[in-house]
Amino acid sequence: MNIDLIHIIYLFGSVTFILGLKMLSNPKTARNGNLLAAAGMTAAIVGTIFLKENEVSPIIYYLIFGAILVGTVVGWLTAKRVQMTKMPELVSLFNGMGGACAGLIGLIEFPKVAAHHPEKLGIVLAGMIIGSVSFSGSMIAWAKLNGTLRNAIRLPKYNIVNTLVLIGLVAYAVFIVVAGAYDPMHLYLLFTIAIVYGVLFVIPIGGADMPVVISLLNSFTGLAAAFGGFLYDNQVMLTGGILVGSAGTLLTLVMCKAMNRPLYSVVFGAFGETATAASGGESQGSVREVSSSDLAVQMNYSSKVLIVPGYGLAVAQAQHVVKELETLLEERGVEVAYAIHPVAGRMPGHMNVLLAESNVDYDKLKEMEDVNPEFAQTDVVLVVGANDVVNPAAKTDPTSPIFGMPILEVENAKSVVVNKRSMNAGYAGIQNELFFRDKTSMLFGDAKKVLGELVNELKNLD
Question: Which one of 233, 370, 379, 388 is the catalytic residue?
Answer without folding.
Answer: 388
